[in-house]
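Hey everyone, long-time lurker, first post.

I ran two proteins through the pipeline my lab uses and got sequence/structure pairs for each. Pasting them in order. The first:
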Amino acid sequence: PVLDTEDAWVSVEGPVSIVELALEQKRIHYPLVEHQFVLCTVLYAIMRLSLKAVKPLSLFDSKGKNAFFKDLTSIQLLPSGDMDPNTLSIRQQFLLKVVSAAVQTLCSSQKDREVSEEEYFPFEKGKNWPTLAADLAQYLQISEDLIRRHYVCELYSYGMDHLGEE
């Protein structure tokens, strides 16, 4: 972009302006940022829902693992559309665990006392873990319908029929 400046500002001495510094920065590689976002979301789900025996890096192939912790401005080889069936199976199992743990946590807290999801997860108002898992399924190349069907089955199995019908 062209920055027009007045003549009075041209002769000013001092540190470089923030705008000029920002324009000098290299552009980030957005798919690499999305890839990092997926890892952060996976790690947060593992931590928040206390999932056991989950190896987060097993959800990614060798290209995906190599892309982590690289400079965000670098162009990295990211996973292509063709994935190993074993990796897809591990991803699917992980997302199903997230949905199951979210429903179990919500239902157990509501059985103890009448608590809404917002009260149980006070810093996560509006965060719906099963919906987040379905959104994450797009990035991990898993069918969203499979995740949603599992969510409905979990709701019915915990006696939350009214939510399952919705």
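...and the second, right after it:
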Amino acid sequence: ATVSEPAQKCCTENIQPFLASILEELMGPVSSGFTEVRSLFDKEVNEIIQDFQKTNDITKLKENVDQLMNLPFNSVKMEPCYLKVNLLQELLQDLKSRFKVYHIDFVIQRTQNFMQELMENAVYTFEQLFSPSRQADSVKVATTIEKVKLRVLK
């Protein structure tokens, strides 16, 4: 009871007025990281479509989709996504001194984990939606892949 009132006053005067601007500042790198995840997924699926249109090879298509399933765990391909979030390091340094925000690395790591999880969900959903269509007419496969990609991106 003796701590509650001073703590609320401190938060109301020293932290709450800055929350909106802090959130806005932090969301820039986070949003660009998630946008990069979306772009990477889009690019990888487009490459699958182009490869299939060139070869019309269902076996190669299956291999490419299997490789897509490993995308969230491909650190080289996911690295550009993760780098976008590393900008938080600089932004959080200012917060660290002003508001005693600690564990900056944890915030960045959790954000990167969420990005990987989003990619895992995207490729899993893609595979689940596309799987029944693999045996379809090869003329329709490229169109089906595109439709599934758009559905996942939605």
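Reply from user beta_strand_b:
Welcome! Quick read of the second one: The two ends are 49 Å apart (CA to CA). The first helix runs from residue 4 to 55.
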